[in-house]
Design brief:
Strand content: 15-25%
Pfam families: Band_7
Number of strands: 10
Largest sheet: 4 strands, antiparallel
CATH superfamily of the largest domain: Band 7 domain
Number of domains: 3
Keywords: Membrane, Transmembrane, Transmembrane helix
Protein name: SPFH domain-containing protein
Helix content: 40-55%
CATH class of the largest domain: Alpha Beta
Structural class: alpha+beta
InterPro entries: Band_7, Band_7/SPFH_dom_sf
Membrane topology: Single-pass membrane protein
Shape: rod-shaped
CATH topology of the largest domain: Tetrahydropterin Synthase, Chain A
């Protein structure tokens, strides 16, 4: 498999630019120079400076074309006739030669909630799944020059990663023996983040946080799966109830025998076990029956 780093033809470097405020002062001086020269021409003075007026206009136009503003958490990639010359991350008013191309890239965190997509989980059940991802650009050169549209690239890779993770695990496991989408949210989110970072590395993008925002069975099987979950829950509850009842019956027989309260043969022990199991496992309250005779009547 080709290493993703070998695909990254671009790498961000620091660009050299000028302080925009100093260049703004130079532009204001050119305006003053132009005004002085114009006044000399209007007054028809002998020292009228036609060349100075032309030069001041030239300096003004030249300087005014090189300004650009950088907001906090923003970078500007500079290119010279198509060749990348670095990224300027200095905040405030900046200036560069007018023939240098400028492309702004936001370095702020972006919060994205993907569309609900339908995926078959590990057991083949169709489910609906969506994810929330917090991402940001870390390498402006890769984001601009290694992919055609880095924002569209992020959307496509998020959908692909969500589909992959959704099909890797079952939706739910009533016995809690497997990693599931519903029961292991933190583990699934961590794996989704790792997969996204690997996919987005080629575009110079990192993922700060991600997680599932929507997880449900598809509408065509939602009713059937709900009944299945209810049945599995009833079976699990019954299993726990029977296990507890058996333990209680065993404990009762053992204590009766140890304390020599009553001596029971196998037939009467079986009858007692049957009665206790009915009492402990029955869904309805039992009605007591008082035996006024002997134990064998």
């Amino acid at each position: 498999m080709t290493d993703s780093k070998s695909l990254n033809a671009s790498q961000e470097t620091a660009a050299r630019s000028f302080n925009g405020y100093l260049m703004l002062l130079l532009m204001l001086l050119s305006v003053g120079w132009f005004a002085w020269a114009m006044m000399g021409i209007v007054a028809d003075r002998a020292d009228a400076d036609f060349v100075g007026m032309v030069l001041s206009i030239t300096v003004f136009l030249f300087v005014s074309c090189g300004f650009y503003m950088i907001q906090p958490n923003q970078g500007v990639a500079l290119t010279l006739f198509g060749a990348y010359k670095g990224t300027d991350r200095n905040e405030g008013l900046r200036w560069i030669w007018p023939w240098i191309g400028k492309s702004k890239v936001s370095l702020r965190a972006n919060n994205l909630i993907s569309e609900k997509i339908k995926v078959n989980d590990l057991r083949g059940n169709p489910i609906e799944i969506a994810a929330q991802v917090v991402w940001r650009v870390t390498d402006t050169a890769q984001a601009l020059f290694d992919v055609d549209d880095y924002k569209a690239f992020v959307l496509a890779q998020i959908e692909a990663a969500v589909r992959t993770i959704g099909s890797r695990y079952p939706y739910d496991d009533i016995e809690h023996k497997e990693v599931t989408l519903r029961g292991n949210h933190d583990e699934v989110s961590a794996e989704l983040r790792t997969a996204l970072m690997e996919r987005l590395a080629v575009a110079g993008i990192t993922v700060d946080e991600c997680g599932l925002t929507h997880l449900a069975y598809a509408q065509e099987i939602a009713g059937a799966m709900l009944r299945r979950q209810q049945a599995e829950a009833v079976i699990a509850a019954r299993k726990k109830l029977v296990e507890g009842a058996v333990t209680m019956v065993e404990m009762a027989l053992q204590q009766l025998s140890e304390k020599d309260v009553v001596h029971l043969d196998d037939e009467r022990k079986a009858a007692m076990v049957s009665n206790l199991m009915v009492v402990l496992c029955g869904e309805r309250d039992t009605q007591p029956v008082v035996n006024t005779g002997t134990l064998y009547q």
